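Page 42, continued from yesterday. The earlier attempt failed because a stray header line got pasted into the input along with the sequence. Redoing it now with the clean sequence only.
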Amino acid sequence: MRWRAAGRALLALVGLALIAYLVERAGPARVARVIGEAWRWLPVILALELVQLVSDFVSLRSILREGWRQVPASTWVRSSALAYALMILVPAGRAAGEVARATFIARHVGAPRAAAASTQLQAAYLAANGLMSAAACAAVASRFGMSAPLALLLAANVAFQAAIATSLIAILRHGRLGRWLDRQRRRFVPGAVESPPLDPEARRRLPWGALGASTFARTAQLVQYGVILHAVGGVVTTRNAFIAHGIHLVGATLGDLLPNQLGVVDGTYLAFAPALGFGDTPARALSIAFVAHIAQLILAAACVAVVVVTRRAARGREGEPASARAGARS
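This time it went through. Structure tokens are written below.
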């Protein structure tokens, strides 16, 4: 456990060191000025970030079908808040968040069903990322050609997201192939854990509702990056919004080992600044990542507060005499 904590701290330091290097390269004063200009758009950016959190709840509810009613509202709140906070604050945060969410849900629907739902949710999320990467790839190719480095990286991201999403579904639906794919997934995906035995009925379902909700969330994220692009002084067009979002998708995949992809997403924006018209003003490209980080960290901090408050409330209820709890309910 200590080694794991030390490793996470080291990765966070690596991310912060990359941030410091990139800021120094772009000019600290310029970066600070651009972020100051973008500050008034933060409420809109935060609202669009909240869509990402809510969409996971909607997706999981659609996967569980009637079973979602077995989960108390307090558990939904705590599990959603904790999953988002882990996604932002720890390495390979998406996987860690889904494990934590499934642990909460399993208390009410059983471990097999919770594990199946978590796997289907991850598959839907990855498939939606692949769809948005394909759209961004088309936008980049229409301007710079398919041989452009960003277009090639986006095409590779489409293939990667599709491969992982397909393997997750195969793990659910097929015995021997599923076990082999699960072993490969745990080898190559940071933070992945062994899948437990799953509900046979849940194996056969494809998460179309979750895919729709996840795609809606990624579309909201596309709008969010269009707003951020405008906030830092960029020219907002549909194509530019797709390019800005595509840079995020590439950087998020490349930097999955670092908390909040610190340094890697930022470096990706700096590397592809010319694609956004920021070739002469790299501080504006770098600020896109910084503004997104700020919004995500604010929401993650709020989620941590929710987890702490609800945990204390739950402990308080557990400490009450049964007669007092019954009186409160009446």
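Notes: The mean pLDDT is 85.
Reminder to self: strip header lines before submitting.
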